[in-house]
């Protein structure tokens, strides 16, 4: 089945620095990828929809200048958390769908970000 | 009212029990319904994927969708300790739309 690779799986950074998270679709092309955020014991909250070759669409309340999304190719989307603060500490997950497949969306393994 | 409602549990059952997990939703435009299993600190893993109403079975898992009642269910037969995880329902209007998730139900199957 479709596989989505997400890196890094865990990152600790200092407050004020930026962190980049990569999401790659393996063996399929994804014109659209989604970025979610998940707090402990809570469900996934959609942050933004990443569109290949165009600007991302952000959900209400998500700062686009803080969470920069780049979908430069059909297999790669990146989320950069800029000027990270402790409140940005969370579990970030991407997902994509293989349009040529018959299944639903496939998720990456997630990135646990801790800002100290 | 949340778009997707799911009882967060926790739910604890003995090994071998039949587990019933449910979600209700308010948006009648949803057509695609999914169940994901998420182990601690991991990304969700797709379990079942259904379109519109009806039943779908895959091994010990059965997914049911009742669009008239805006209600979906996941049944797990002969539950195993390895089934212990958080189960998330998700739904979308079309296959290119973002998904909306339930809160997730934390399930523990005790040996």
Q: How are the elements arranged and paired?
A:
The complex is a heterodimer of chains A (116) and B (111).
Chain A: E1 3-7, E2 10-13, E3 19-26, E4 32-38, E5 44-51, E6 57-58, E7 67-73, E8 76-81, E9 90-96, E10 106-107, E11 111-115
Parallel strand pairs in A: 2-11
Antiparallel strand pairs in A: 1-3, 3-8, 4-5, 4-9, 5-6, 7-8, 9-10, 9-11
Chain B: E1 4-5, E2 11-14, E3 19-25, E4 32-38, E5 45-51, E6 54-58, E7 61-66, E8 71-76, E9 85-92, E10 100-101, E11 105-110
Parallel strand pairs in B: 2-11
Antiparallel strand pairs in B: 1-3, 3-8, 4-5, 4-9, 6-7, 7-8, 9-10, 9-11
Description:
The complex is a heterodimer of chains A (116) and B (111). Chain A is mainly beta and 116 residues long. Helices cover 0% and strands 53% of the residues of chain A. Chain A is built from no helices and 11 strands. In chain A, strands 2, 4, 5, 6, 9, 10 and 11 form a 7-stranded mixed sheet that branches. A 4-stranded antiparallel sheet of chain A has the order 1-3-8-7, with no helix packed on it. The model of chain A has no long low-confidence stretch (mean pLDDT 90). Chain B is mainly beta and 111 residues long. In chain B, 0% of the residues lie in helices and 54% in strands. Chain B is built from no helices and 11 strands. Chain B has strands spanning 4-5, 11-14, 19-25, 32-38, 45-51, 54-58, 61-66, 71-76, 85-92, 100-101, 105-110. In chain B, strands 2, 4, 5, 9, 10 and 11 form a 6-stranded mixed sheet that branches. Chain B has a 5-stranded antiparallel sheet with strand order 1-3-8-7-6, with no helix packed on it. The radius of gyration of chain B is 13 Å and the shape is globular. The model of chain B has no long low-confidence stretch (mean pLDDT 92). Chain A binds chain B through residues 4, 6, 32, 34, 41-44, 46, 49, 91, 93, 95, 97, 99, 102-110, 112, and chain B through 6, 8, 32, 34, 36, 41-46, 49, 88, 90, 95-96, 98-104, 106.
């Amino acid at each position: 089945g479709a596989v989505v690779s997400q890196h890094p799986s865990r990152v600790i950074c200092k407050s004020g620095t930026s962190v980049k998270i990569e999401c790659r679709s393996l063996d399929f092309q994804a014109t659209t990828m989604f970025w979610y955020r998940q707090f402990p014991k809570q469900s996934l909250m959609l942050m933004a929809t990443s569109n290949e070759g165009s600007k991302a669409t952000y959900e209400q309340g998500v700062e686009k200048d803080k969470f920069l999304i780049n979908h430069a190719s059909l297999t790669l989307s990146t989320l950069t958390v800029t000027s990270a603060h402790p409140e940005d500490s969370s579990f970030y997950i991407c997902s994509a769908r293989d349009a040529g497949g018959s299944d639903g969306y496939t998720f990456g393994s997630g990135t646990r970000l801790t800002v100290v | 009212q949340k778009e997707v409602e799911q009882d967060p549990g926790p739910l604890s059952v003995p090994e071998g029990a039949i587990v019933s997990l449910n979600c209700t939703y308010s948006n009648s435009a949803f057509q695609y319904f999914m169940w994901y299993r998420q182990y601690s600190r991991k990304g969700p893993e797709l379990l079942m994927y259904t379109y519109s109403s009806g039943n779908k079975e895959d091994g010990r898992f059965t997914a049911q969708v009742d669009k008239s009642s805006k209600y979906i269910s996941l049944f797990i037969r002969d539950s195993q300790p390895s089934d212990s995880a958080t189960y998330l329902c998700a739904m979308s209007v079309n296959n290119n739309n973002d998904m909306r998730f339930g809160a997730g139900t934390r399930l523990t199957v005790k040996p």
